[in-house]
Design brief:
heterodimer; A: mainly beta; 6-stranded mixed sheet; 5-stranded antiparallel sheet; 11 strands; 55% strand; globular; B: mainly beta; 7-stranded mixed sheet; 4-stranded antiparallel sheet; 53% strand
Chain lengths: 113, 114
Amino acid sequence: AQSVTQLGSHVSVSEGALVLLRCNYSSSVPPYLFWYVQYPNQGLQLLLKYTTGATLVKGINGFEAEFKKSETSFHLTKPSAHMSDAAEYFCAVSGSGYSTLTFGKGTMLLVSP
Amino acid sequence: KAGVTQTPRYLIKTRGQQVTLSCSPISGHRSVSWYQQTPGQGLQFLFEYFSETQRNKGNFPGRFSGRQFSNSRSEMNVSTLELGDSALYLCASSLAYLAGDEQFFGPGTRLTVL
């Protein structure tokens, strides 16, 4: 069985500040890890994913995440927040075989001017 | 390339009715998955279809069903609607639905049950 825990249902940052959204996973098999973003009244958009290889993954819009197996973590970061980053962010995991996604509860990122 | 489309975008139904939601995947994608999103339970996997066959199913009652057509378009049906079925229903498509494949999501259908 797989599970994802996202610490903090809401995270507030100032524009230009570092963004850090935390994700810890549990998986009995080597995981595939994803970060998705959801803007109001829209579907999910993939920011980045980790499958194999390099543990530091770069995604769209300046986001990146680092897979740390020893800590079972896959935290999402962005050096400088922009107002347009305000949205809900979901961490997800899938295992071997089919790519059914197990999602975390989501973190709402609020960006203030 | 057109994205995943879902129709209708909004639906209002009353308890006991049934509803059918439609999803058209990205051209060339053969796998379609459905997810339910609610404030309380978050995003939960309903089922996945590949080449007209259900390959994987989440933990939902039998009132929730789906199918896929030869052109990969998919429908999901919910019978005997309950208030708790109010949710955003998201459809996602991928090339082959293998581990690590990116799933592309549609905008969702927001179902309200009164």
